[in-house]
Amino acid sequence: AQKITQTQPGMFVQEKEAVTLDCTYDTSDPSYGLFWYKQPSSGEMIFLIYQGSYDQQNATEGRYSLNFQKARKSANLVISASQLGDSAMYFCAVGTNAGKSTFGDGTTLTVKP
Amino acid sequence: SQTIHQWPATLVQPVGSPLSLECTVEGTSNPNLYWYRQAAGRGLQLLFYSVGIGQISSEVPQNLSASRPQDRQFILSSKKLLLSDSGFYLCAWIPQWTGVWETQYFGPGTRLLVL
After folding, report:
1. What integer is the mean pLDDT of A13-26?
2. Can the peptide bond before residue A40 be classed as cis, meaning omega within 30 degrees of 0?
3. Closest by CA position to B6, among listed B94, B104, B54, B74
């Protein structure tokens, strides 16, 4: 079974600053994918970034980057230059066979003006 | 382009009543389909997934069931709702699983309140 741990229930960041959201995972699968999603108050799940377990380079997508440390089983999300619209809940997930995903309990990010 | 629909958007049901939530995907064929439930302030819990018509795998034993009567239709049902069934239900899909991970595409969700 897979497990995702997001230890920060809530985070605050000043607008235009960078913020790191923590994620550690536990899986026995030799090959897996790591995902981050954003969920605004509307409830929709918005895909942000993906990292494959065999990818050597850390993934980046615009202002989002994934700090992947395989030996530590951690996949932290870094958001640079925070914007007010970044205020939302953020979920880390690990993808395994059959395309299934296991999600953490999320981190609520609040961006202060 | 592919789109995913869920209905209804919100639902208030009494305890003991039946449930039927529907999810349909357009613009793709033979997708893998998933039902997740999200309790308030929590992450998503996988309930069921399907790799093809009539093929359903249950991840969590409970009083819910799922069916896939057509290639792009996924239905979540219950004969008698419990208070604990309240939550936000999300349907998701990916192209047919080939061993390569890609993001799941989520529907807009159904908010269910059981009273």
Report:
1. 98
2. no
3. B74
The Cα B87–Cα B44 span in angstroms is 10
Is B108 within 8 Å of B97 (Cβ atoms)?
no
Q: Which residue of B has its CA nearest to A37?
A: B103
Mind listing the pLDDT tens digit for each residue in B45-85? 999 999 999 999 998 868 899 999 999 999 999 999 999 99
What whole-number distance in Å separates Cα of residue A30 and Cα of residue A46? 27
Nearest to B47, CA basis, from B84, B16, B18 = B84
Give the residue carrying structure tokens 């793709």: B28
Q: Report yes or no: B2 at the A interface, CB cutoff 8 Å.
A: no
Burial B50-72 (b: 16+ CB within 10 A, else e): bbeeeebeeeeeeebebbbeeeb
Contact B101 A50 (CB under 8 A): yes
Radius of gyration of chain A (CA): 13
* Contact call for A50 and B49, based on CB within 8 A: no
Q: In the 8-state DSSP scheme, what is residue B71?
A: T
